[in-house]
Amino acid sequence: MAVILRSNTDLVYLPDHGFVGEEGALRILPQITRHIHRLDISHNLLGSSGTLTLFKGLSTLRLRHSSPELGLGMWGLKEVNLGNNNLDDIAFDGVLAYAKKDVWLKRVLVHGNEITLDEKNVNSIVNSLNGSHITSLSLVNNTSISPKGLVRLIGLLDSTELKQLLLSACNLSSEEGLIEAIVDYLASNRSRNLESLELNGNHLGGIGVTRIVDCIESSNWTITTLGLLANHSLSDQLVPIDDNSNGHDGNGVNGDNMVDRAEENKVMEYQVHRRLPEILNRNRILTKRIRLAALKALVPARIILNAMPLTDEQTARRVIDDISQDRSYNMARFRLLELPEEVIQLIVRHTSDDPWAFSESQWTRLRKEASSRDNLRKASELVNSRLRGKLPDERRETVRDLKNDWLRKGRWDKWER
């Protein structure tokens, strides 16, 4: 079959092309040139051997396409879609091992595979994930995931890059301590950069859903998207219609279970559709507040905190000059830099128009950043180098990226308490 290149020319689109095993991988590799940054090979049959062969070849291509001696920058893939390819833990580990080395790779989709997170593999998997630059990971519809393995992965998950984790339709239940692991992760600083968690279509139950929502409300201010739809517990499934044992009505349904399901429906409706949206909207507002406050305070903070007060000699010279030119010198003029240090810092903090958006640690970091002349010089050099030769539209996009990078580097991009 012919290779399909999308119009923006950075995508090789090869779903359902009959690529099987190592031979299939070897047929894919020649299509990946230096201008390709996205690869969709979903719905093939690469399996473990084919996936490992593919990513071994990609490692070679990454070195070949990255040629500093020819004036070429680093090359890498930004997105890989390996959905429905019969991947197992070994293949998944191989993908993440590649991602540790390819700093470009941000999005990995391995939905609909046979990943189990077996105990003998999960440590290596999570270590590679923590060391990668992946921002979005989809494990949707991997129905064979081991609850113990997922608990282990979440317990060790400490990625500073991961923003989106998709675990919908993975047949997850509240057993094996999974809810506790999710709650502990969401309440810890390890999840600080996570913005989206999808758990739709599992079996976490009303109690599990409630505990997760409780945790977001009390301990997490960074999640802005949380999927918890269709999470009825396994214990509330309908019994077979031909089961006429005691305790069942004429339709073959356990009356007590019907009551339990009705109550759980009410709980899920309240938690998912009424309570959760308000909490997520709160997090969006708080995120916007701290970002705006930090950006607005930066310039006046740099000016004031780097200003040098006039010496007595300079003050005297100014008075003499004013007198000699018949100008009255107002000795009562406001001299900001002569105020106590803590008052100056309070004034600078209020230039943000939202001084209480900062946690104390965030404000301390901002003050140190703004008062460093070396940081100011480096920031100026970076802006000049990044804007050089850019068109107006490109300049606006570059400035936006620089602001986002600065906010993230100083951790002023997320609400803290």
Automatic annotation (TrEMBL):
Coiled coil: none
Gene Ontology biological-process entries: nucleocytoplasmic transport
GO cellular component term, pick one: nucleus
Any GO molecular function: GTPase activator activity
Domain of life according to the entry: Eukaryota
Keywords for this protein: GTPase activation, Leucine-rich repeat, Repeat
Gene3D superfamilies assigned: Ribonuclease Inhibitor
PANTHER family: RAN GTPASE-ACTIVATING PROTEIN 1 (PTHR24113)
Annotated protein name in UniProt: RNI-like protein
Naturally occurring in which organism (per UniProt): Kwoniella europaea PYCC6329
